[in-house]
Amino acid sequence: MRIVFAGTPDFAVPSLRAxxxxxxxxxxxxxxxxxxxxxxxxxxxxVKREAxxxxxxxxxxETLRGSQAQQDLRDLAPDLLVVVAYGLILPRRxxxxxTHGCWNVHASxxxxxxxxxxxxRAIQAGDAETGVCLMRMxxxxxxxxxxxxxxxxxGPDETGGQLHDRLAEMGAQVLEDxxxxxxxxxxxxxxxxxxEGVTYAHKLxxxxxxxxxxxxxxxxxxxxxxxxxWPVAEAMVAGERLRIHGAIAVDTxxxxxxxxxxxxxxxxxxxACGDGALRLRVVxxxxxxxxxxxxxxxxxxDVAGT
Length: 306
Hints:
There is one protein chain. The radius of gyration is 22 Å and the shape is elongated. The strands form four sheets. A seven-stranded mixed β-sheet has the order 5-2-1-6-7-9-10. Strands 12, 13, 14, 15, 16 and 17 form a six-stranded antiparallel β-sheet that branches. A two-stranded antiparallel ribbon has the order 3-4. The termini are far apart. It is an alpha/beta fold. It folds into two domains: 2-201, 3-Layer(aba) Sandwich (Rossmann fold), CATH 3.40.50.170; 206-299, Methionyl-tRNA Fmet Formyltransferase, Chain A, domain 2, CATH 3.10.25.10. It is built from eight helices and 17 strands. It has helices at residues 13-21, 46-54, 67-75, 92-95, 118-124, 160-184, 217-226, 293-299, and strands at residues 2-7, 24-29, 34-36, 41-43, 58-59, 80-84, 102-106, 114-115, 129-136, 146-153, 200-201, 233-237, 240-250, 261-265, 268-272, 277-285, 290-292. Helices cover 26% and strands 29% of the residues. β14 and β15 (268-272) form a beta hairpin.
């Protein structure tokens, strides 16, 4: 089966490997090289690096709306287009080119968390479970019928990065299962997503990373987990801006104003919230690396024992 694969970030790499396992990946589409690092030199996407290592031709159009870009895809004569976190909008004419249409691996249990950041939003919202869906794409945003899905519980301490890695591997497995069924002519009838339960996972914004102490501690703890490793929660603590890599909610009664430092010791730094307290466990000073709260307190003797 001739497959064209479209993807860009790390999340898509396991799916590219799965697509290439028993099929012919005739081309990989990925976003153009972007400036990265301190030197701001152009860097290839993770998917491009994987494709080059496998000797797969790479295409990097700025858009797929142009007639030439669409003709280039048509000339590849794909049986299927597999899309995983590509980052570009696919016009309806592109969706109609492959013989079997376009499939998308999406990191949520649709219709919950359509959109750009389903992994982080599921943790932030306190969802008990999430998963991956293999969906047949249509013109709407993640609205297409679902071919296969797999659910998984979200661990109580799981971070956005950890869940990302698990779902990337699950997505690859679901894709491989779907491709096997397609080759055998046994693909199940896709089910149409219900209108009820639709939620949108808006793109992460660095402005969201600033913790609002007036919120309940349990919500802030989930935000810290969801935003690890990016954009990483941050807050002012004892007059110093810290990035918060690890924290838990503490069910403690207090009459202090939100943002008040309640206690600081070996177990962490307790900050008053609108409800309960947030115990900071792993922090990062500006220009430094992530350290335990105890190590930060060693450098801040004015705070230790407060």
